[in-house]
Write a structure and sequence with these properties.
The complex is a heterodimer of chains A (466) and B (430). By secondary structure, chain A is α+β, with helices and mostly antiparallel strands. Chain A contains twelve helices and 23 strands. In chain B, the strands form three sheets. In chain B, strands 9, 14, 15, 16, 17, 18, 19, 22 and 23 form a nine-stranded mixed sheet that branches. In chain B, strands 1, 2, 3, 4, 5, 6, 7 and 8 form an eight-stranded mixed sheet that branches. Classes of the chains: A alpha+beta (466), B alpha+beta (430).
Chain lengths: 466, 430
């Protein structure tokens, strides 16, 4: 349900836009009201709290022909004229700074008034219900592995309401997401390991139904990882699970085609548009409209409608993703990828749901094709280098493949590194199904965290592992 | 600050009126920020931020347990909305059954963390920083392709039902710079982030100049022709990352949840052929950018030595897990100090491989793994210094500590004070 608070401020926002428009050619206001709950039950402890990313406030964006000014504040009400005056005064800068402004195209905004809502079962659950469910799941997990050091269940919900008001637009949206994770820590065979499995959906019930079905896999994985060895560094044929595929798509290509980096001459991909950058069997998308996951909003934080962008088509780089400010500097259309960590942060070009599309092979065929290599599983973390197109991604573990068969030999961790075009051009097989995971956060450098999903089909490629 | 005082008083009044609540804690955080965003040398965005939010924790004693649950309050919320949240959180807290723990009590304080930022207007500081940074951007083929400057004044206050009322004002600046070296169609960059709470414009210009020289080195760097088989040295950022993981292992929370694999009595440097590690969690670091007077429970921060000459001697942590582990409440410390060694960098045995910029140091305590992809390293040999790129390294944590050489020279990096270079042997460079 759309936020009553934001609804109550709609007229005040319109008044403030009108008032500030006496000073600025373009004025927009984004209002955010994000509610989320985190309920956690472990063997030793229980917690229930508002999620750390909950927020409630407004950001005013203003510009004439060049510099963008923004003002983030907790509320918009009371004497609007006085508030407008305060914002204008606070936004003044020195003449020296003003003279060094960017050059950009004028804003040409369509007229649009629309309300978007995605229904879910979230309103049927209170925080205490989630805690009780988390505790029950935790108890069930302990029963399956009584010798564990710790076992736990974390349930996280997000309920997002946003309003965007400008001279030509009035948009509202409300959507939700639920993440559930089960965790186990064991100490066996002289080694301590921590493992996890997750379930993700717009509905709480689906997550609660899915988590118990993952417990046997979790317990088995924990035991196997206590026997995991370090990888012998080298180049290998690998098959990636969906999360590692997604990590590659995200780190190697997603960050590389964020067009705010084109503006700053920070992306090698800028020079490769229309060229082959990957195997001809590879296709990649990003968009809040491309799939249904944690980043499936209806409009971005600059009021641009959600996009569905073909980034790589049959191996050729077709398009980047772009926020409004960068699009105005580059002279192209924004793709609905302008996102803020919160109303108190700036908009950057950010990924949403990023994935490689499915291919024609079965996973079985792909494993059979490898004489010696690895099946890489579970994202740990990754790092982008869009300028020099290098990549570093860490998988939690790798399972050895010998003579076309998965073995019981586990290796951990598995760190992939290398040059992106080489990696992508080495893709020779892509599976005919795919999965997207919506539990991750993406940073820009080491800050500006937004929720993203990534995934795709299994891919077979050649990578450097260490 | 009239508005903020009224809100915190309102929240406290509502909590005190509710007899179901055994205890409570309110944390108020006000941020005023001035920000500049540059594309090359041109200003793209100017931002100002003024926000306040509140985090409220309720404690309810029931059935021999403590039920604790928390929620956020925003300045825009009405009394009715806050009261509804309190009532819902009481229900949540009653579902929580944690072992009882003490709460901090009876401390009042009002501090300002040392910083010369208070002598200036935040906007002026941001502009001065930009001028100082671009002052260094005058080298042929070099450029700062993007520069972001954040200057903040943060006021933090904690008020509890157990007679805590502590306030602290701090200032911080964060500068993100992208030094770039371009010749023709070839271009490389590095990522640099600087955090500080004292303004020294000459230092900023110097650091940016150093960054531009480093990115020149990255441009000239090549993959090594021969295998690199010598000790590796890491700088402040990577040392901080490494010791964050070590410190996490030695926190009361990790110990209580049996997640730690390092324990009191362990000797991390059993070899007599290396410098010994002494790691202290520090309440304050002079020149550091992360100094605070109290943690999120209102506990004072007590400097605590964790590792002394290689031997683990102590754990640390805040009031909750201190109660659970029956140990002294040190406060939730975050600043770290590692004592330097006796060898000056100029006397380091050659060759050694100094890591200047990594994609990110990966530290996996459970798999005994440290490694990362190297964007730029300096190979120091008797023939000079060679810039190297396109390799990665890995080693075991045990092996790293068994071969330590800690430089005599020290350096502050954010909330870390340690040797300017920390060297170790037996790593594989791939």
């Amino acid at each position: 349900m759309f936020s009553k608070f934001l609804a109550s401020r709609k007229e005040a926002l319109k008044c403030l836009v009108k008032e500030l428009s006496k000073t600025y050619k373009y004025v927009s206001i984004l209002g955010t009201d994000v509610k989320g709950i985190r309920a956690q039950a472990t063997k030793q402890n229980q917690t229930v709290s508002d999620d750390g990313y909950n927020e409630c406030g407004f950001v005013v964006k203003m510009t004439n022909d060049d510099i963008f000014f923004e003002y983030s504040l907790d509320d918009i009400n009371g004497d609007i004229k006085e508030l407008a005056l305060k914002i204008v005064l606070e936004s003044k800068i020195s003449k020296s700074l003003e003279s060094k402004h960017i050059k950009r195209y004028a804003i040409d905004e369509e007229k649009l008034e629309k309300d978007f809502v995605r229904e879910s079962d979230l309103s049927n659950y209170q925080a205490k219900d989630l805690l009780v469910s988390a505790s029950n799941i935790k108890d069930e997990l302990i029963n399956k592995c009584p010798s564990c050091l710790t076992a736990g269940c974390i349930l996280m919900t997000t309920d997002v309401s946003k309003i965007f008001v400008s001279k030509n637009k009035c948009l509202t949206q409300n959507y939700t997401w639920v993440n559930g994770i089960i965790i186990l820590m064991v100490n066996e065979n002289g080694k301590q390991v921590q493992v996890r499995e997750g379930a993700y959906s717009i509905n709480v019930k689906e997550v609660l139904d899915k988590l118990p079905t993952l417990m046997d896999k979790l317990v088995s994985k924990a035991h196997k990882l206590t026997l995991a060895k370090p990888i012998v560094p080298g180049f290998y044929d690998v098959i990636t699970d969906a999360s590692i595929t997604g990590l590659i798509a995200h780190e190697a290509f997603g960050h590389g085609v964020e067009m705010d980096q084109f503006v700053k001459d920070r992306a090698y991909a800028k020079h490769c548009m229309g060229e082959y950058v990957a195997s001809t069997i590879l296709n990649m998308k990003d968009g809040a409209k491309s799939d249904l996951s944690v980043a499936s909003y209806f409009f971005d934080d600059d009021g641009i409608l959600a996009g569905d962008t073909d980034i790589i088509v049959d191996g050729k780089l077709k398009s980047g993703i772009c926020d409004m400010q960068s699009a105005l500097q580059l002279g192209c259309k924004p793709t609905g990828n302008g996102r803020r960590q919160s109303f108190s942060h700036k908009t950057y070009t950010r990924m949403t749901n990023t994935f490689f599309l499915k291919g024609n092979s079965t996973l079985d065929e792909m494993i059979k094709s490898i004489k010696h290599g690895f099946y890489l599983a579970e994202t740990n973390n990754g790092m982008e280098d869009p300028k020099n197109w290098n990549i570093q991604c860490t998988a939690e573990y790798a399972i050895e493949i010998i003579d076309g068969k998965l073995t019981d030999n586990y290796f951990s961790p598995a760190v992939m590194s290398g040059y992106v075009p080489d990696l992508l051009k080495s893709i020779t097989m892509i599976s005919n199904d795919y999965e997207i995971e919506g539990s991750g956060y993406c940073g820009k450098g080491y800050k500006e965290w937004v929720k993203v999903s990534s995934g795709g089909a299994n891919v077979k490629c050649k990578v450097k592992l260490s | 600050m009239q508005g903020e005082v009224i809100m915190i008083n309102l929240i406290e009044k509502l909590l005190k009126n509710n007899k179901e609540i055994s205890s409570y804690k309110i944390i108020e955080r006000n941020v005023i920020s001035s920000e500049l965003y540059f594309v090359h040398k041109n200003i793209e965005t100017v931002r100002n931020v003024s926000t306040t939010e509140y985090s409220v924790t309720l404690y309810i004693m029931h059935d021999g347990f403590i039920g604790d649950a928390s929620f956020k309050v925003f300045k825009s919320q009405t009394e009715e909305e806050i009261e509804e949240k309190i009532n819902n959180t009481i229900l949540n807290a009653k579902e929580v059954s944690n072992k009882v723990y003490s709460l901090e009590s009876d401390i009042k304080s009002n501090d300002e963390i040392e910083s010369n930022f208070k002598e200036y207007n935040l906007k002026d500081i941001a502009e001065k920083i930009s001028e100082a940074a671009f002052k260094a951007d005058n080298i042929t083929n070099a450029s700062i392709n993007a520069l972001e400057i954040f200057v903040k004044k943060i006021t933090r206050r904690i008020v509890t039902s157990t007679n805590i009322d502590r306030k602290e004002v701090s200032y911080e600046a964060m500068v993100e710079a992208i030094p770039t070296w371009t010749i023709g169609n070839d271009s490389v960059e590095l990522y640099k982030q600087y955090n500080f709470s004292n303004l020294n414009l000459d230092d900023i210009t110097l650091k940016i100049n150093e960054a531009l020289m480093e990115v020149k080195a990255r441009f000239e760097a090549k993959k090594p022709e021969e295998e690199i088989n010598c000790p590796i040295a890491i700088r402040g950022l990577e040392q901080q990352t490494l010791f964050n993981e070590i410190a996490l292992q030695l926190s009361y929370a990790s110990v209580y949840q049996e997640a730690n694999i390092i324990k009191i009595g362990d000797d991390l440097n059993p070899s007599n052929k290396c410098d010994k590690l002494t790691l202290t969690m520090a309440s304050e670091i002079k020149g550091g950018s992360n100094n605070h007077k109290f943690d999120s429970d209102g506990s004072s921060l007590l400097t605590t030595k964790l590792i002394d000459n290689g031997k683990v001697i102590s754990y640390f942590g805040g009031v909750k897990y201190a109660t659970y582990t029956n140990m002294k409440n040190t406060g939730a410390l975050s600043n770290k100090k590692v004592e330097c060694g006796n060898t000056s960098i100029k006397d380091f045995k050659l060759p050694y491989f100094e890591l200047v910029s990594l994609s990110g140091l990966q530290v996996d305590m459970y798999n005994d793994y440290v490694g990362g992809e190297i964007r730029l390293g300096y190979l120091h040999t008797k023939d000079g210094i060679k810039p190297i790129t396109g390799v990665s390294f890995q080693t075991s944590i045990k092996s790293l500590f068994d071969n330590l050489v800690l430089s005599k020279e020290e350096e502050v990096y954010e909330g870390y004070l340690g040797p300017k270079l920390l060297m170790f042997n037996n790593a594989k460079v791939l």
